[in-house]
Amino acid sequence: MHTVVIGVIGADVHAVGNKIIEHVLNEHGFNVVNIGVLSSQEDFINAAIETNAKAILVSSLYGHGEIDCRQMKDNCVEAGLSHVKLYVGGNIVVGKQDFKEVEDRFKKMGFDRVYPPGTNIEEAIEEIKADLT
Amino acid sequence: MSIHLLVDFGSTYTKLTAVDVEEEVIIGTSKAMTTVKTDVLEGFNTALEKLENAHPKMGEISAVSACSSAAGGLKMAAIGLIEELTAEAAKRACLGAGALVNHVYTHHLSKKEIKALKSAAIDIVLLAGGTDGGNKECIIHNAKKLREAEIEVPIIVAGNKDAADEIETIFDDSKIEYYIVDNVMPKLKELHVKAAKDVIRKIFITKIIEAKGIKKAEEKTGEIIMPTPESVLMAAELLAKGYEDEEGYGELMVVDIGGATTDIHTLGRGYPKRTEVILKGLQEPFAKRTVEGDLGMRYSANALLSLVSPYEFKKYYQYEDESNIEASAKKRSEHVDYLPDNDQEEAFDAALARICCDLSVSRHVGTVEVVYTPLGNMYYQTGKDLTEVQYVVGTGGVLIHRKDAKQILSEVTKKSNKKLELRPEDPKILIDEHYILAAMGLLSQKHPKLALKLLKRHLK
Lengths: 133, 460
Ligand code: B12
Hints:
The complex is a heterodimer.
Chain A: E1 3-8, H1 16-27, E2 31-34, H2 41-51, E3 55-60, H3 65-68, H4 72-78, E4 85-90, H5 99-108, E5 113-114, H6 121-132
Parallel strand pairs in A: 1-2, 1-3, 3-4, 4-5
Chain B: E1 3-9, E2 13-20, E3 25-33, H1 40-54, E4 61-68, E5 75-79, H2 83-96, E6 100-105, H3 111-119, E7 124-127, H4 137-148, E8 155-157, H5 164-172, E9 178-180, H6 194-211, H7 218-221, E10 224-227, H8 228-241, E11 252-257, E12 262-267, E13 277-280, E14 287-292, H9 301-305, H10 310-316, H11 325-334, H12 343-364, E15 367-373, E16 376-382, E17 391-395, H13 397-401, H14 405-409, E18 428-431, H15 437-443, H16 448-458
Parallel strand pairs in B: 1-4, 4-10, 5-6, 5-7, 7-8, 8-9, 11-17, 13-16, 17-18
Antiparallel strand pairs in B: 1-2, 2-3, 11-12, 12-14, 15-16
The structure holds cobalamin.
């Protein structure tokens, strides 16, 4: 069973999607550690260390995801989590921007997969499973 | 008449409390110097004689219960993975069991840390790390290091259950005495300290008491059932929660200022009192104890002085001639049974007590932090919100014997520049005048309702 840490980063309180993600991942046999809304990078990283997680799924809905996710990969590497996969999804930037550019920027930051607005968690699950095995 | 005798072998005094269980009254209390260096029973017998002389009609003693903090109390080291998570959970388990925790280690133990641990004056090591199913590499590494170092004190393993079998193999063919119990943090941020606390108490009763030369007392007192701070915490919990139809006082705080340490106990959930405040961090125990090893009236007087600037100290101590400050502190740390013999020395003690109270409360209470976000200010709370605590109970030698004890305890509500600390705002202050808190914790094991009634009657 794969352990994954999920949560909503930064000062973001959008809680509904987070609960759905927890539920769906559980259904699909993941061991889900949900740190909830208003979580800092440090919260994600500490949780991943203690629980020996294979992946971190960051949600950001309120538009400030890019600021909140800065250096997250570097911080993971620093904390000994270079092997942990990093995913991000939700409405990660403000307004309607060309997603390809957004994706590139997040990939440069070290995220393994970046999901455009409107991607349901179900759509991502197969990819995540494949990455982790 | 049925007398239950309660005994507390303290670091300085052996204190007795006699309770008439049928009449539901405290017959009397007495104390004598603790005599661990020679024979603990000497001190006990002296105190018992005093008690019997003062109350010749006391009658048969039908039961005895004892606790102890003599010979340095119970000292532990806590090891975890992340400082704010399993290391903190391990530390809280130790504190809740009545131990003093001067050594906390995180991540992989280094050679230097192992060396420090080996030479430290500790009685038990608590080894944690990883949630159940989580990280086990770190705790296994640390177990191997402890084994290589041939740590001589008992080791309690309370980490990731997936690592248990491997740790068992590591320790099995060694001389290490070890106990594997439930994880102190089985799920992220979930505190689960009961199993660890129970085994700490078991080791305390069976081993530590013996090692510290207190075992002999058991000829007279029966098994010494727990460390004194644990009985204080139990009394406080009973007083907060109530028992059956006897109501409790609700959220409360106990401030115990001793010669070497200051203990703060709080009973209550401590959840945020305002909706816009978000709670962060590890779950808080309902009954929480913290101990400050650098805040005390005698052994720690020097350490205490180094914590406050001379300017700050003068705010507590208004004597023109301050040349004696260092000398007064030194006198106290060298003569731990020193009692002030003039006004100036009285004032000095009062200053020390106020500082103990202020700083230890400051370290115990939760804090609110403002986080400036793109969407304006957000408030995060770590630790307990104690602003609505109804009662603060003062105990410990200094407080009990001073007329100005309540003024000293008013430091609890001090605001000053620390406005983000969630201290009690308007509590009622009570003093444990007859020094019965620990005794009532002991009594509560058999007669909880009576212990509660006596607490309510005698804390004033
Ligand atoms: C309800 C809501 C709120 C509620 C939230 C209540 C709560 N506690 O949950 C309240 C009123 C508090 C709120 C506030 C704000 N909101 Co709002 N809110 C919404 C709304 C209408 C619905 C969100 C929702 O619950 N959706 C249903 C869930 C199931 O979907 P979801 O959250 O998108 O999550 C799914 C997917 O995104 C995906 N997913 C999410 N994370 C990840 C991660 C990975 C790795 C993957 C694969 C998938 C994935 O899977 C989830 C489950 O299927 C949306 C608009 C919308 N229709 O989406 C706006 C919206 C998210 N909010 C928005 C904004 C701007 C705000 C505010 C800043 C408004 C303001 N100026 O005050 C504040 C921010 C407050 C804060 N600090 O977070 C914008 C964000 C715009 C942007 N990013 O460019 C939106 C899109 C509205 C809009 N069109 O403008 N909001």
